[in-house]
Amino acid sequence: MVVQRAKGTQDLSPEDMRRFRLIEGIFRDSCLKWGYEEVRTPTLEYLHLFTSTGTLTPSRLGRVYSFLDWDGWSGERVVLRPDGTIPIARLYIEDMKERELAKLFYVTNVFSFEETGKESREKWQCGGDSIGAGSAAADVELLLLALGVLKQLGLQDVEVRLSHADLIRALLAKFGLNPEEQHSVFDRILDGDEKVLSGTKSERPELGNTLASLLDLKGKSSGFLKNLKALFNQDSKELKPAMDNFIKTVELLEAVGVNYQIDLASGRGFEYYTGLMFKLLIGGEQIGGGGSYDHLIPLMGGRETPASGFALYLDHLMKLTRVATLVGPQAQKILIKAEGEKTLKDAFSLAAALHEAGHEAEVDLGSQKPTDYKWLLSVRDKAPHFVLSNRASRKKLEAHKAGEILKFLESGQVQISKSK
Question: Helix or strand or coil: residue 278?
């Protein structure tokens, strides 16, 4: 039997984890600077959290990993978390509902079944949520936070595409489509199912033509939306609230210097979004997205609470981020070699002292390659008890006490003799 990882999963190597932690660290620091607090939700959630309120479409629910959590004579069906936002909303309702404003962030994995196994079934996200503000400013803050993280990662040419869930709903509701039909028709068209659009045109020409026009709507300014509002002036009662909210948000984005493209067709998967939706792309590949979800918390049993959130897709960012361009000077790695069993105790004690002083040091276990280290430190049972060698320059320091080694590495002012 061949030992291998499960289909649709992946391992993270030491190099992968360096990149992962680098991205995570930049994201975490950025969130803290904006006043967000870190939270973590369970990997397991009850299935009804995602089904009872219609928070996920049937197609997404069909891809969740669910099983019976058996407890005595009865059990509840649970799922591996398929979404990052809904557990955050549950956490807020359960533990933080007294807060007028909760600004939260997380780094988490989500699970979704993918039949071929070619795509990962476990994906990592860095996400942020602003719960309680309910304003264009809150949406813009989240977008600025996300763009700031990408900038710190050295990623350029980030494309921002904007859509608006309530505007899409208002346009589709004109033709008598219920919420489930809205999701189905819109998502299938965006998936490239041209038969849906052609069929709709033949069965309901007015709806088909409107959908075709909707998918072609693109612009790069608030003026574009104002012209669109004038175009649909006869339906202003239904469209006005969504259009006004959209215009207010993009005007603020323009004021803070964010370039964007209005693309209503980028609103795929808008099941729990209510207002602004945004996607972040590099080279046509989506690396993140988010939007407002003002109805989600009351749908789940909480009080009326506006909210917005976003997620950056860590798996994609890891492929695009170059660690070497972001990290500063590397720690001076030290390999400590004990010359004999008697000196092992001193070698480990010295390694601990070096760690406390902020150095990266390892005791030689017999398999390390000296070429991977800048310094080689021999611990002997005779004088001189410590010999520190610079592998590149071949200079060395002989010392009788460990403190001399620490002092040198700290200041670099101790005289080193040339190796003979």
Answer: strand
pTM for this model (two decimals): 0.83
User: Residues 160, 261: contact at Cβ < 8 Å?
Assistant: yes
Pair 163, 283: CB distance under 8 Å? no
Identical fold between 14-157+283-325 and 334-418:
no
Superfamily of domain 334-418: Anticodon-binding domain (3.40.50.800)
Helices (H), 256-357: 296-299, 314-320, 344-356
Can you tell me the distance from the alpha carbon of 21 to that of 53, in angstroms, rounded to the nearest whole number? 36
> How buried is residue 344: exposed, middle or buried, by Cβ count under 10 Å (0-12/13-18/19+)?
middle
Superfamily of chain region 14-157+283-325: Bira Bifunctional Protein; Domain 2 (3.30.930.10)
Phi, psi of 318 (to 5 degrees): -65, -30
Kindly give the residue spans of alpha helices, DSSP state H, lying in 96-178. Answer: 136-152, 165-173
| Separation between Cα atoms, residue 15 and residue 41, nearest integer Å | 27
* Chunked mean pLDDT (size 10), the chain, 420 residues: 87 93 95 96 92 72 85 78 94 96 97 79 95 92 95 94 85 70 65 56 62 68 71 66 88 91 75 89 95 93 95 95 70 87 90 89 88 90 91 86 87 48
